TrEMBL record:
<dbReference type="InterPro" id="IPR051922">
    <property type="entry name" value="Bact_Sporulation_Assoc"/>
</dbReference>
<dbReference type="InterPro" id="IPR013486">
    <property type="entry name" value="SpoIID/LytB"/>
</dbReference>
<dbReference type="InterPro" id="IPR013693">
    <property type="entry name" value="SpoIID/LytB_N"/>
</dbReference>
<dbReference type="GO" id="GO:0030288">
    <property type="term" value="C:outer membrane-bounded periplasmic space"/>
</dbReference>
<protein>
    <submittedName>
        <fullName>Stage II sporulation protein D</fullName>
    </submittedName>
</protein>
<dbReference type="Pfam" id="PF08486">
    <property type="entry name" value="SpoIID"/>
</dbReference>
<dbReference type="InterPro" id="IPR014225">
    <property type="entry name" value="Spore_II_D_firmicutes"/>
</dbReference>
<keyword id="KW-0812">Transmembrane</keyword>
<keyword id="KW-1133">Transmembrane helix</keyword>
<keyword id="KW-0472">Membrane</keyword>
<feature type="transmembrane region" description="Helical">
    <location>
        <begin position="18"/>
        <end position="39"/>
    </location>
</feature>
<dbReference type="GO" id="GO:0030435">
    <property type="term" value="P:sporulation resulting in formation of a cellular spore"/>
</dbReference>
<feature type="domain" description="Sporulation stage II protein D amidase enhancer LytB N-terminal">
    <location>
        <begin position="66"/>
        <end position="172"/>
    </location>
</feature>
Amino acid sequence: MSNHCRGGSQLKKYNPLWIIPILYVLTLLLIPAVVLLPFSKHQEEKQSTEQPKQTQEGETLTVEVYRDQLDTVEQIELESYVSGVVASEMPASFEEEALKAQALAARTYVTRLISAGGAEGLPQKADITDTTAHQVYKSDQELKELWKDEFDWKKEKIDQAVAATKGEVLTYEGKPITASFFSTSNGWTENAKDYWEEDIPYLQSVESSWDEEVAPEFLSEVSIPITEFEEKLGITLSDGEIGTVMERTPGHRIKTVSIAGQSFTGREIREKLGLRSTDFHWAQKGDSIVIQTKGFGHGVGMSQYGANGMAKEGKSYGEIVTHYFKGVEIGTVDKILPSLVAQK
């Protein structure tokens, strides 16, 4: 106040006319700053609200998903992608801990593909497809069309399970694993080397006794005309001869079988005939071959119905994933994010 009053008295005393143009110039210089300030602040606020969610490292990981039906590549934020996979791959009616285990498997599966530079053999460069070739993904709009008036409660339940495991991945020796999963076991999971012919230390056969109790289609039966059976396998059956099982895997599935003098792996039979699993036996009935299977899927990694059975017994998602994936640890995407973002 004292300085201001002293300055005012001096102006009154001397009152030089040249001060007026100086004040005019200063006014012209200040007005743009005053006008622009609120716009700058507004722009900063707008930019901050438009920023996607960031990790603790300050980076955001997106997934480039090849949308098969649309023939386009869509960029989806990681956690949104995981939610869309869990919603597509596991019933929302499953126990919360099973949904968490599925979220962890889904996030790990795609993280590993990203770290490898993306999936190979796609029509366009992307990290992963939205089909069973990798893991199924559906957007919220697609889920609304599928679930209709059940969308809200199902999506909320799944989003909560995904949020509870945010950023978590399964690692083996510090790297994200191939977190494979399938629907239903035959009471055991399969060694990776017995189905994919690749020995993976964390994908070893383990007991999965819960499936028979909780899976609605643990046993399944299909009837195939003999002519179709012969055509699909490229063989000709002799009267009364339908084949012999030569060897079974530690997962109690068929490893090799001899039919009409030819040797097939269990996987070859399953894929050629479109069977639900490689644990099967068959019998001839009239002009057809009747085949009964146990379980559903390749059998490697986590059984989804087994996971739900474990959850019903009170097991946590951590206990579930470490049962099905041997010797793994639960880590975070943040620890491997810098290398992943660099590759993006």
